[in-house]
Amino acid sequence: GAVVSQHPSRVICKSGTSVKIECRSLDFQATTMFWYRQFPKQSLMLMATSNEGSKATYEQGVEKDKFLINHASLTLSTLTVTSAHPEDSSFYICSAAPTFSSYNEQFFGPGTRLTVL
Amino acid sequence: GIQVEQSPPDLILQEGANSTLRCNFSDSVNNLQWFHQNPWGQLINLFYIPSGTKQNGRLSATTVATERYSLLYISSSQTTDSGVYFCAVAGTGRRALTFGSGTRLQVQP
User: Fold this and answer.
1) pLDDT in tens, B44-54
2) Nearest to residue B86, comparing CAs of B26, B42, B40, B28?
3) How many Å apart are CA B105 and CA B94, to the nearest integer?
4) What percent of chain B is predicted at pLDDT more than 90?
5) Does residue A8 have a cis bond before it (omega within 30 degrees)?
6) pLDDT at A84 > cutoff 70
7) Is CB count within 10 Å lower at the N or C end of chain A?
8) pLDDT on residue A99
9) Chain B contacts of A91, Cβ < 8 Å?
10) Partner-chain residue, chosen from A45, A93, A113, that has the shortest CB–CB distance to B43
């Protein structure tokens, strides 16, 4: 149990285009999901907290108009990178914790590798 | 925000050796997790351990919350144990995880 999927796993796009990444909890409901970014040889950095039915909460320094987050249901959150530029190339990973659980354990998706040319 | 420090940053072992990875954190936590990131980037949950001791096969972990550190033990290491090990914590009142910088482990045959 506690499986999180992401789609696509890899995407290459041209500068200026927008890219949408989906994060799904497959066997549990998640009121809250999280989006992280990881640059090569570095650790994961929290970008934003995605809340079902309400606006996302962004970390300091993360442009909310550039990284649009929509948490449309208890099993799906999407991250859209708008007007992508080469500096947005990174590994994007989402996580979720089961809503109805006495634990806070989080489970991570397999990640999406974005390359902007 | 909460600070997380991992040591050592890099570790090279011969197959069969044992190792201890350390995670120090700066404040009270309600969540502490250890992960292994495989070569494809997937984070594998090893332990959910905000306090106490757990064991799973050749791996075990101990968190001493009052002293703000956690240890991950790997015994009889195998080449498949290679990769990056992350400690991540959530401070009191938060759910989002703050990650340490990781320990890059290389197990040589």
Assistant:
1) 999 999 999 99
2) B42
3) 30
4) 94
5) yes
6) yes
7) N
8) 81
9) 41
10) A93
Average pLDDT over residues A30-50: 95
Query: What gap in Å lies between CA A46 and CA B97, rounded to an integer?
Result: 8
A15: three-class secondary structure by DSSP: coil
Q: Mean pLDDT over residues B80-102, rounded?
A: 95
Q: Burial, B101: exposed, middle or buried (Cβ in 10 Å; 0-12, 13-18, 19+)?
A: middle
Terminus-to-terminus CA distance in chain B, angstroms? 40
Does A102 score more than 90 pLDDT?
Answer: no
Maximum separation of any 2 CA atoms in chain B, in Å: 44
Q: How far apart are the first and last CA of chain A?
A: 37
Residue A1 has pLDDT above 70, yes or no: no
Identify the three-state secondary structure at position A87: helix
- Assess whether pLDDT exceeds 80 at residue B25: yes
Torsion of CA A4, A10, A16, A19, to 10 degrees: -30
Over residues A6-25, the mean pLDDT reads: 97
State how far the Cα of A19 lies from the Cα of A2, in Å rounded to an integer.
26
Q: With beta carbons under 8 A apart, name residues in chain B contacting A62.
A: none
Q: Is A113 on the interface with B (CB under 8 A)?
A: yes
Interface of B to A at Cβ within 8 Å reads 30-31, 33, 35, 40-43, 45, 48, 50, 86, 88, 90, 95-102
